[in-house]
Amino acid sequence: MRGDGVNSIKHLAGIPRFYAIERIENQGCASVIHISRKPRDRTCPTCGGRGNVHGHEKRSMFCAPIGGMPTAVRIRQRRYRCPMCKRTWLEADELKSPLSSHMTNDLVTLIGVELMRRQSARSISRRFGPSKDMACKVLDAMAVPEPYLPRVLRVDELEADTDAGKTGAYAVDGERGVLVDVLRDRRPETLDAWFSRFSEGELGSVDCLCCDMRWGFVNAAERWLPCAEVRVDRFHVVRCVTKAFDKVRARLQREACISVKQDLKGARKLFLMRKPRLEDLDAKRIESGKEPLACRVEYLLGTSEELAKAYARLQAFYVWADTDFANGREMKKALGDWISQAQNCGIKEIAMAAGSIKEAEEHVLNAYRTGKTNAYAENDNRKIKDMKRRACGFANFENMRRRLLLAFGYPPMSKEGVALPNYN
């Protein structure tokens, strides 16, 4: 094998230059590189005398894969014996990782990078060769980022399903988009214990808290974040109204006759659609010679006066949410008018939704006035669900917290290519 080819293999497998490659063996599902260390220091660690070769010992360990195939190195180590103090020892092995004698340092680093890229321990074991327990040992040894309080804090609930409970919570840095911490649950005592870890200066540095309409987060912010402006995410506000309307539709659907029941069930998405969007779709359908969807909606609204009232309140809220008001006073007045009309419309579900918005009216107005959303936290929620699905769930909360912080607690790694050294 040419010298540049040997150097390339050493570089890919993470083998230092003072190791010599004796041969490479292909075992079908894996490759084995037989190497030996060039003689270096023979000094006795006890008396300082010069040792003599007293035999050899072979040891195997996994290294970085080459060509997408699991690769192992088999090292032929010299055993020395001191003629002065009769002590025996093995020559130094720079390849072996302090974490495990079955993995090289480069492989441990590579496994850590793959864990940060949200790969499961099982897939790492299948691609690189070490067992799943060895990959988990690397996971336990990795340092997770310390929690901190960002200037813009975004919190949301999490479906944990661990030994700590079914529902947890997590915090996200709203400016950097990284995960700050994961909490066991969203109970007031858990939130208080988490905020109490920070100093008064750190608590006062938070300018904004964005959350959903659950009062646990809002009350915790009022107790611990004196300078923070609380904003209820616009998505959750809209969902509160759309969910109330859908409850009305489902109730009327159960009470309707068979012919209307199927139509109400099939028109669910049409009811929740904004009127301008529905008009755009109808314009395209008319051009292609199809019946407008608005006719179907009007027919179903004519079957129930209660459904028509609820639909009118829903579309009125859409108009308020999409309007660019000149100032906050006009926005507040328009929202107050909608709340008053919704509470007096005689529909229980719509009135309850209006009451929920009225309780958080100040925080809702803050969100619509600034235009800020909880998108970072909701995006992380989707990624966390995907990660849990690949891992088939997490039984232990601390294990889940460590995996999530390693995957989302650091800024995203660059996807640009890396130039390889030129051995020519």
Layout of SSEs?
Elements: H1 3-13, E1 19-26, E2 31-37, E3 52-66, E4 69-81, E5 88-90, H2 105-116, H3 121-128, H4 132-141, E6 152-162, E7 165-173, E8 179-183, H5 188-195, H6 200-204, E9 208-211, H7 215-224, E10 229-232, H8 234-255, H9 258-266, H10 268-271, H11 275-287, H12 293-301, H13 305-322, H14 328-343, H15 348-359, H16 361-370, H17 375-390, H18 397-408
Parallel strand pairs: 2-4, 6-9, 9-10
Antiparallel strand pairs: 1-2, 3-4, 4-5, 6-7, 7-8
Q: What Rg, in angstroms, do the CA atoms define?
A: 32 Å
What fraction of the residues are assigned to beta strands by DSSP? 15-25%
Query: Number of DSSP strands?
Result: 10
Number of helices: 18
Helix content: 40-55%
How would you describe what is shown here?
The protein has 424 residues and is an alpha/beta fold. It folds into four domains: 1-95, no CATH class; 99-142; 152-233 and 374-408, Ribonuclease H-like superfamily/Ribonuclease H (Nucleotidyltransferase, domain 5, 2-Layer Sandwich), CATH 3.30.420; 234-370. 48% of the residues lie in helices and 19% in strands. It is built from 18 helices and ten strands. The protein has helices spanning 3-13, 105-116, 121-128, 132-141, 188-195, 200-204, 215-224, 234-255, 258-266, 268-271, 275-287, 293-301, 305-322, 328-343, 348-359, 361-370, 375-390, 397-408, and strands spanning 19-26, 31-37, 52-66, 69-81, 88-90, 152-162, 165-173, 179-183, 208-211, 229-232. The strands form two sheets. Strands 1, 2, 3, 4 and 5 form a five-stranded mixed β-sheet that branches. Strands 8-7-6-9-10 form a five-stranded mixed β-sheet, sandwiched between helices. Strand 6 and strand 7 (165-173) form a beta hairpin. Helix 3 (121-128) packs across helix 4. It is elongated.
